[in-house]
C-alpha cells in the first residue's frame, strides 16, 4: 500500500548533493491467495525492487506491506525471520546462488536446518519428495550444480525455494535466462506446483507473452509507479493506458487478420533520480496534453478491478 523505495545517490563534484533514485514511487496492489499476480514493465521500472522490498531485502522508504492483514514492516527482526519461511524468492540465475561445492541434497538440506523445521531424518524424506515434484531423480540429487543444464538448475532453484513449504513465492525473471522450449517446461512445472501446493505467486517479468500465459492479474509499472492493473484477459484485450497499448502493440498477434499497428515510443525511460513533472509517462506519450505536464494522474478504478493512472480516463471532476 503506497510503497516507496528511494535509494540515496550522491552527486555533484564533492559528492555532497544528495539525490534520490525513486525506484519504487508509491505503488499499491493486492495479491489474492493462490493466484498469480504479475508485474511487467521495462527494466529499471521498479519491479524487482518491489519484490525485494516485500522480502525486506531492501527496507522500504515508506508504505505498508500487509500479509494476512498485518503490516510486515512493523515486525521485529525475529518475528520477520519466522515469517520468512512463508515468503520465498526464485531468481533469474539460480546458479549464482547455489554453492558449487555442495551437492543438490546438501543445498536442499541447508534451508531446513537453518530454519529448524524438522529433524535430519524428516529432512531426508522432504528432500526426496520435493526433488521428485520438480522432476529431479534420486540419483541426480547427489550431484553438484555445475553438472546440470540451465533448465535443471532452475529446477534446483525452485526446489530450494519450495522446500520450506512457503505460501507466497516471488519469481523474479525466473525463466528469462532459459531457451524458449525450456521456458515452457519450467512455466508448466510452476503452474502445476502452484495448484498442487496451493502457492501464491508474484511473477515479475518483462516478457508479455510469458506473463499472459501464467497470470490471473497483471500490473504494468513505469518509472516506479503503477500505470494500469487488470485481470489478464481484460488487460490484453482492452488496454487503457497509452503505455500498456504501446507494450502490447510490440507483441506479434496470433490472429493474422487482426494486424495491430506497432506503436513506437519516442525517447528513453527518464532517469528515476530525476523524473518529469506531472505524469511519469508524458515525455513518451502520444496523447500527452497540458494537464499531463502539471498533474500526476490519479490511479483509479475505472471498471471492475481495472485500474489506470491517466488523465484520458478522468471523470469530469
Ligand atoms: Fe499520456 Fe497524459 Fe495519460 Fe500520462 S496522463 S499517459 S501523458 S495522456
Ligand atoms: Mg529486474
From TrEMBL:
GO terms for molecular function: ATP binding. The keyword Cell membrane does not apply. Keywords: ATP-binding, Nucleotide-binding, Transport. The keyword Ion transport does not apply. It comes from the Bacteria. Residues 1-248 form the ABC transporter domain. InterPro entries: AAA+_ATPase (IPR003593), ABC_transp_ATP-bind (IPR050319), ABC_transporter-like_ATP-bd (IPR003439), ABC_transporter-like_CS (IPR017871), Oligopep_ABC_C (IPR013563), P-loop_NTPase (IPR027417). PROSITE patterns: ABC_TRANSPORTER_1, ABC_TRANSPORTER_2. It holds the Pfam family ABC_tran. SUPFAM superfamilies: P-loop containing nucleoside triphosphate hydrolases. CDD domains: ABC_NikE_OppD_transporters (cd03257). PANTHER family: TRANSPORT ATP-BINDING PROTEIN. NCBIfam families: oligo_HPY, PRK11308.1. Belongs to the ABC transporter superfamily. This is ABC transporter ATP-binding protein. It comes from Virgibacillus byunsanensis.
Amino acid at each position: 500500500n503506497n510503497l516507496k523505495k528511494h535509494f540515496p545517490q550522491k552527486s555533484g563534484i564533492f559528492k555532497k548533493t544528495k539525490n534520490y533514485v525513486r525506484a519504487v514511487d508509491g505503488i499499491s496492489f493486492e495479491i489474492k491467495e493462490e493466484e498469480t499476480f504479475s508485474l511487467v514493465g521495462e527494466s529499471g521500472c521498479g519491479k524487482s525492487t518491489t519484490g525485494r522490498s516485500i522480502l525486506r531485502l531492501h527496507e522500504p522508504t515508506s508504505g505498508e506491506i500487509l500479509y494476512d492483514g498485518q503490516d510486515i514492516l512493523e515486525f521485529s527482526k525475529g518475528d520477520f525471520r519466522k515469517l520468512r519461511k512463508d515468503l520465498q524468492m526464485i531468481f533469474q540465475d539460480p546458479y549464482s546462488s547455489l554453492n558449487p561445492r555442495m551437492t543438490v541434497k546438501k543445498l536442499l538440506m541447508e534451508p531446513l536446518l537453518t530454519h529448524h523445521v524438522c529433524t535430519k531424518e524428516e529432512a531426508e524424506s522432504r528432500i526426496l519428495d520435493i526433488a521428485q515434484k520438480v522432476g529431479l531423480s534420486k540419483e541426480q540429487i547427489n550431484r553438484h550444480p555445475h553438472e546440470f543444464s540451465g533448465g535443471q538448475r532452475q529446477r534446483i532453484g525452485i526446489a530450494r525455494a519450495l522446500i520450506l513449504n512457503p505460501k507466497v513465492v516471488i519469481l523474479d525473471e525466473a525463466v528469462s535466462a532459459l531457451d524458449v522450449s525450456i521456458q515452457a517446461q519450467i512455466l508448466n512445472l510452476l503452474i502445476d506446483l502452484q495448484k498442487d501446493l496451493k502457492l501464491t505467486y508474484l511473477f515479475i517479468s518483462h516478457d508479455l507473452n510469458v506473463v499472459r500465459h501464467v497470470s490471473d492479474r497483471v500490473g504494468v509499472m513505469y518509472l516506479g509507479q503503477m500505470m494500469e492493473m487488470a485481470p489478464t484477459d481484460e488487460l490484453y484485450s482492452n488496454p487503457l493506458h497509452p503505455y500498456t497499448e504501446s507494450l502490447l502493440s510490440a507483441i506479434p498477434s496470433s490472429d493474422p487478420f487482426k494486424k495491430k499497428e506497432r506503436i513506437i515510443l519516442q525517447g528513453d525511460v527518464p532517469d528515476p533520480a530525476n523524473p518529469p513533472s506531472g505524469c511519469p509517462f508524458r515525455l513518451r506519450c502520444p496523447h500527452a496534453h497540458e494537464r499531463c505536464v502539471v498533474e500526476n494522474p490519479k490511479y483509479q478504478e475505472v471498471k471492475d478491478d481495472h485500474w489506470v493512472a491517466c488523465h484520458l480516463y478522468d471523470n469530469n471532476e
